[in-house]
Structure formats: C-alpha cells, structure tokens
Design a protein that fits this description.
Blueprint: H1 11-82, H2 85-96, H3 101-118, E1 122-129, E2 134-139, H4 144-148, H5 150-156, E3 160-165, E4 168-178, E5 185-194, H6 196-203, E6 213-220, E7 223-226, E8 240-242, H7 248-255, E9 260-264, E10 273-279, E11 286-292, H8 293-374, E12 378-383, E13 388-391, H9 393-402, H10 408-416, H11 426-433, E14 437-443, E15 448-458, E16 464-473, H12 475-511, H13 516-547, E17 556-558, H14 561-574, E18 578-583, E19 591-593, H15 595-611, E20 617-626, E21 629-635, H16 643-646, H17 670-680, E22 685-690, E23 694-702, H18 704-716
Parallel strand pairs: 18-20
Antiparallel strand pairs: 1-2, 1-5, 3-4, 4-5, 6-7, 6-11, 7-8, 9-10, 10-11, 12-13, 12-16, 14-15, 15-16, 17-19, 20-21, 21-23, 22-23
The structure holds adenosine-5'-diphosphate.
Length: 717
C-alpha cells in the first residue's frame, strides 16, 4: 500500500471541502439571484407607481369634465331663460319707464313659469331689475332671510355658486339680461338648480375602490369650502368650511390651475392617502379625488408580488439547476483535486529531495574546493588538448618559486615535463594507456626532484577528457636518500677500518707466537680501535635516540669547570701532537646540565678539533660568562671550514667534503649530536673559522640564576 504522502487530504476532508464548495456556490447563486430580483423589482415599482397615480388623476379629470359639462348645461339653461324675448322686452319697457313694477312682475312671472318647465333641474328663477329689485320669483321659495337680503345676495352672487337652502344644496347661476336694442344689461336672473346630478358625479365610485372619495370644493383664503360630503352620510352637511384640512395643499395647487396628484401622509386620524386634484374649468372650484395609498397601490403590489414570486421561483429553479450542475462537477473536481494533490505532494517530495541533493552537491563542491586549495602538493587539471583548466594555490606558489616570471602554462610544462619526449612525459603516457601513471622527474632549471602522479579523468561514457596531475616535492627525500647512502658507505667504511685493524692484529696473534710486550702493543691498538668503533656506534645511536626524544635528560646544577678539565685530560693522553689546554676563570657561574650528555658534546668537539688539525697544534678549551649565559669554546689550529659549509655542518650526515684536500674519516653525526644536546639545555651552538688557520666552536648555556628568573617571569606572564 502506498504510504500517505505528507499534505495529502483525508477522504473526510475532501468530502467536507466538496460540501463547502456546493453550499457556498448555492448560497452565492441564491444571493446573486435575489439581488438581481430586488434590483429589477425596484425599477419595476418606480416605473409602475406613476401609472397608478395617473389612474387617480384620470379619475379626477373625468369627474371634473362631468362637473364642467353639468355647469355649462346649467349656464346654457340660464342663458335661454335670460334671452326669452317677451320677458326681456317687458323688462326693457319697465327700465324705460313704460311699465310699472306690478305690470312687469305680472307679465314676467307668467312667462318665467313656462321657462321653468323647460328644465327638470331648474327649481327656481328670480328676476331682478337693474337696481336689484325683485321683479319675479318662480319656483321653490327661498328662505325668508334670503328673501329679505335678496338684493344684497344678488350683488354678492358670482356667475354661479352653490347655496344651501333648508338643508339642501342648490346651484345658483346668475345670468345678465340684455336689451335687444342696445345689448345693455337691463336686469339679472338667478336660476337655482338641483345638485342631484352633481352629487351623482361625485359619489360615483367607479375606479376608486372602497376607500375612494371625491370632493368638490372652493378655496376660501387659507381654508376650503367643501360642497358635498364625500359620501352619503345620515346627516348631510353642505358647504362645510374646512379649516386645517389635510387635503388643503391639493386644493391650493388646483386653485392655481394645476392638475396632478400628491401624497398626504397620515395625519389627524387620516390614513395615508393619494390625492389627485384638478381645477374645474369655467368656475373657481376644484375637484379632488383621494384614495388610500394602500388601495391605490394594491394592484401594483399584486403585480410586483407576482413578478417577485416568478423571480423567486426562477431563482430557486436556477439554484437547483446550479446544484444539479455543480454536483457532478465538484465530484470531478474532487477527483482532480485528489490527483493534483497526490501529484503535488510527489512533486514537493521530489523538489525537497532535489534541494537536499543540491545542498549535498554544493557542500561537496565546497569541500572539494577547500580540499583542492588545502593540498600542499601542486595539483593541476589539464584536458587532452593540453589546456590548463585548474590549478591550486600550492601550484601557483611552487611555480613562482621554481621559475619566477614564467606564465603558469610554461611553469607547468617545465614542472610536469609536458615538453619531454612521449616516452618520458607521464601525461602523454596516461593519455595513451588511459591508466594512472607516476614517476619522478627532475626540474632542470631549479635542480629539484618531484614525484609526479597523473590520473585519468573520464566522462560518463568513458571518454577520456583530461587528467589530474599531482607534483610532490621529493628533493629533500632524494637528498636524504643520497646522504643515507653516503652515510651507509661512510659508516661501513669507518667501521671496516678499525675492524680490519682489529682482525689483523687478532689473526696475527693467533697465528704467530708474540711476546708479552708485542702482545700489549697489539692489544692497545685493538683497544683504541674498539673505542673508536664504540664511539662511532654510540654517537649514531645517541643521535637517533635524542632526536626521537627517547632518552630523558638528567639535569643538575653544577660548576662545569671540572667537566672541562676531565675532557681535556682525556684528549691530552690520546694525542701527542696536540697541546690541549684550558682557559677557565677560577669561579664559573653554575649551570644546569646533564653531565653525561654535555661530556659527550664536549668530547665530540674536542675529537673534531684534533681530527681536523692533522698537523697538530694547540687545542684550547675556554669558558666565560657572557650576559646571562656561560659561553664555552673549543679552538683548534687545524684545516678550518670553507664558508659555504659553515651553515650546514650541524646538519645530520653533512660533511664538508672537499676534493682538493684529504679529509679525515667521519659520518657527519658528531656536530648534529652537539647541537641536539645544547638545544636541550636551552643554549645555542655556532662556529667561527678561517680556512687553513683553524676553527673555534662555541656553545652557550643559560646561567642558573638567570634561568630561575626567566622561569619565574614565564609563570608570572
Ligand atoms: P664527522 O666529523 O664525522 O665528519 P661531524 O658532524 O663531527 O662529522 O663534523 C661535520 C663536518 O664538519 C666534518 O665533516 C668537517 O668537515 C667539519 N668539521 C667539524 N669540526 C671541524 C673542525 N674542528 N675543523 C674543521 N672542520 C671541522
């Protein structure tokens, strides 16, 4: 089973995610559709509302037209009554004084009676003369108070007006009577009409629903006189003066000749209303139609509700459709997501592994670079075309040392022997054999030896493209080998000489009868040679031990004067040609020394002084304090040391060989031993010499007081 990769979601997580996607998509769709619906319904409402209001205005206008028609009809009837010729003529005669008031009243009443019958709506006719005196009154009697003040009423009455008489409302129309001769006004008629048809017009409820009301009114300054109650009431009141009426603003507008509609907010117990208003042409009346806002807008709301229901249904259907569409899609998306996730986690893992590998590679690259630079041998990479690709710092140093001023290319040629014949060139051999090659080569100009190793470099397809060359300086080794060879030959030579002598004497004594004196002489020679051999071997072994620091020193404080005397005595006896003496002050400062080692060093210096002054001479051992050191010197008058060798005579196996003069035997270890011993004592050794005249060897030893002080300083520091 495949191990679950890191970051791979579980089955439940995917299911949950799917649910979330579905739910959020459905919610978003629902919200979006609802928003669209709301956004579309609002414009619908604002678009339809004026239409509803226009309906109300239309209702008002239709009623106003009916009122106008009623008025014009009444005016027409009045005009017909005015223009009855006979009655007009009587009035003209009366005005001209041809008839008396009684006469004219009598004639006119008879004529006007006929006239009253023309119309069913006219209920009374009252005729006045020019001065306002009543000439005739036919029909419904007027109230007494109205009769009395009829003349003043006549003066006040406008062309037409509504007047209440005994709880009933009548339309009074005032019409001028003109003379047929000169058209001058000779009197007036006031004709009263029933207002039943007017009431019918106003009480007609068509198109106004249950809350609809119509008002016919006349504005009076800040108030309004309403002619009829807007509906039949048990106690009908006419010509009602309305003060502080909520519909007053509509009246004011209509009075200015404007038609339109407006909203009346809930106030004084009135419900919220819509009011349409219009002036009634030919009069100073206004007509109002009002409806409760709710009822007026009810059809609009119903329509909007239907649209909303439709939109909602569509929305739900759309959402369900979306759900049906999304479900399989999300299922597929989940599958893809799962696969993508798997792929992603695999990729992430791969990337992480690659990054790790890259980091490892970079680290190894850095390590390799560091190692390459840290190698103290010269390392060079060269391709098969002979191009120098890389070299480490050691190579640059070495090339600078071997041939300063040369280009690296030239330097490498000389170092690795690229220019040598193919048989000697290791790099060429490596290319030929495709195998690693190594060997030693001499750098001609610098006279130094190098061990050269050459390793082939292959591509993945095993194509050889270059090689690594490593040059190791083996000059010192070579030299040591040479010195060792020489030493072996010198040691064997040095050993053979005493051994040959010893062997010769021993054989001679064994084979020949020798007397006691001769025997002693021979044995002394054998003893001397044995001692020489012993010294040679012990010098060699001591130096080895000292250098390997195997031998521990046994220091003690002492006055070395006695030691100098002892050594001098040893050599005084050994050589008759040399005069060994000591120059030493009575009291020498104390030094801390290993007596045996120091004795060995002194012996080596003295034996050299004697050995290298074959012609004999004085050998002086001296000691003197100098600063904080005691300086001991051994001077001879021998062959001296050539200047070039003075620096090197303290090296192991170095011998200042000079073919121009005979050299006593030796293996070049004596002075090395001296240097090792003096160094261990904290001192130094040096030489002064003049060729042919002699040499003086010095060594210094730190004085005890001084040493103690120094040690103290050291510990304090
Ligand atoms: P060895 O005497 O066995 O050759 P040493 O180490 O004692 O080795 O001396 C090294 C070399 O120094 C000698 O070979 C010699 O050339 C030179 N040398 C040492 N002592 C003297 C000396 N007193 N006078 C001249 N040369 C000396």
């Amino acid at each position: 089973m495949r191990k679950k990769a890191m970051g791979e979601p579980s089955h439940y997580a995917i299911k949950g995610l799917r649910k979330k996607i579905l739910l959020s998509s459905v919610l978003y769709t629902l919200a979006a559709l609802l928003l669209i619906s709301a956004l579309s319904i609002y414009p619908l409402y604002t678009w339809m509302r004026p239409a509803a209001e226009a309906n109300l205005t239309h209702a008002a206008e239709i009623r106003a037209l009916a009122v106008e028609e009623y008025l014009s009809r009444m005016v027409e009837i009045t005009r017909q009554i005015n223009s009855r010729t006979a009655a007009r003529n009587y009035l003209a005669d009366y005005s001209a004084g041809k008839l008396t008031l009684e006469q004219v009243s009598q004639f006119t009443t008879a004529i006007l009676k006929d006239a009253l019958e023309i119309s069913t709506e006219a209920v009374s006719i009252t005729r006045f003369d020019r001065e306002g005196r009543t000439i005739a009154h036919i029909g419904k009697p007027l109230r007494p108070e109205l009769d009395i003040s009829l003349s003043s009423w006549y003066q006040q009455l406008k062309l037409m007006d509504l007047v209440a008489v005994e709880g009933q409302l009548f339309l009074a129309v005032k019409g001028p009577i003109r003379s047929t001769a000169d058209r001058s006004v000779i009197g007036h008629d006031i004709v009263m009409f029933t207002t039943t048809s007017l009431q019918r017009i106003l009480w007609q409820t068509t198109g106004l629903g249950t809350s609809g009301e119509s008002w016919l009114a006349r504005p009076v300054e800040e108030s309004t006189v309403v002619f009829f109650p807007s509906h039949r009431a048990t106690e009908e009141v006419y010509n009602l003066l309305m003060t502080d009426w909520p519909l007053q603003p509509a009246v004011t507008r209509a009075a200015k000749g404007k038609a339109g509609s407006m909203k009346i907010d809930r106030d004084h117990g009135y419900r919220k209303k819509a009011v349409a208003y219009t002036p009634v042409a030919g009069s100073n009346w206004v007509l109002l139609v009002s409806m409760s806002e709710q009822e007026l807008m009810a059809p609009l709301y119903r329509q909007i509700l239907m649209v909303a229901a439709l939109v909602l249904t569509l929305t739900i259907l759309g959402t369900l459709g979306m759900l049906a569409l999304l479900r399989p899609m999300t299922g597929r998306v989940m599958v893809y997501t799962k696969e993508l996730d798997k792929l992603n986690s695999e990729l992430t893992q791969e990337v992480a592994e690659r990054e790790k590998a890259e980091a490892r590679l970079q680290r190894s690259q850095r390590e390799w670079e560091k190692t390459f630079e840290a190698i103290t041998d010269a390392v060079v990479i060269r391709d098969t075309q002979g191009r120098l690709l890389k070299m480490n710092q050691a190579t640059q140093h070495l090339l600078g040392e071997l041939a300063p001023g040369q280009s690296p290319e030239q330097g490498c040629r000389a170092l690795f022997g690229f220019d040598k014949p193919a048989s000697e060139c290791l790099f060429c051999r490596m290319i030929e054999t495709r195998e690693a090659q190594c060997g030693e080569q001499r750098h001609e100009t610098a006279d130094r030896w190098f061990h050269i190793a050459c390793y082939p470099l292959f591509d993945d397809d095993q194509t050889l493209w270059g090689g690594v060359l490593i040059a190791q300086d083996v000059s010192e080794q070579k030299k040591m080998e040479r010195i060792k060879d020489e030493m072996i030959s010198s040691v064997s030579h040095e050993m053979r000489t005493p051994l040959t002598a010893m062997l010769g004497f021993v054989e001679f004594m064994l084979e020949n009868p020798v007397d006691r004196e001769q025997q002693i002489d021979f044995l002394q020679t054998i003893h001397r040679e044995t001692e020489r051999l012993n010294e040679l071997v012990s010098n060699f072994l001591d130096l080895q031990r000292l250098q390997a620091q195997l031998e521990a020193y046994q220091f003690r404080e002492m006055d070395i004067c006695a030691l100098l005397h002892e050594t001098a005595h040893l050599f005084k006896v050994a050589s008759k040609k040399h005069q060994v003496s000591i120059q030493c002050p009575g009291q020498l400062p104390t030094v801390r020394v290993d007596e045996n080692r120091l004795l060995q060093a002194l012996k080596n210096l003295l034996s050299n002084a004697i050995k290298y002054s074959p012609a004999g001479g004085a050998v002086v051992i001296a000691a003197r304090p100098e600063g904080d050191h005691l300086v001991v010197s051994v001077r001879d008058q021998g062959m001296g040391i050539p200047p070039h060798a003075r620096e090197r005579i303290f090296e192991r196996f170095y011998r200042a060989d000079d073919s121009s003069r005979p050299m006593p035997g030796g293996i070049g270890l004596g002075l090395s031993l001296v240097r090792e011993v003096i160094k261990a004592h904290g001192g130094e050794v040096w030489v002064e010499s003049e060729e042919g005249k002699g040499s003086t060897f010095y060594f210094s030893l730190p004085m005890v007081e001084n040493k103690a002080e120094k040690d103290k300083e050291k510990t304090e520091g």
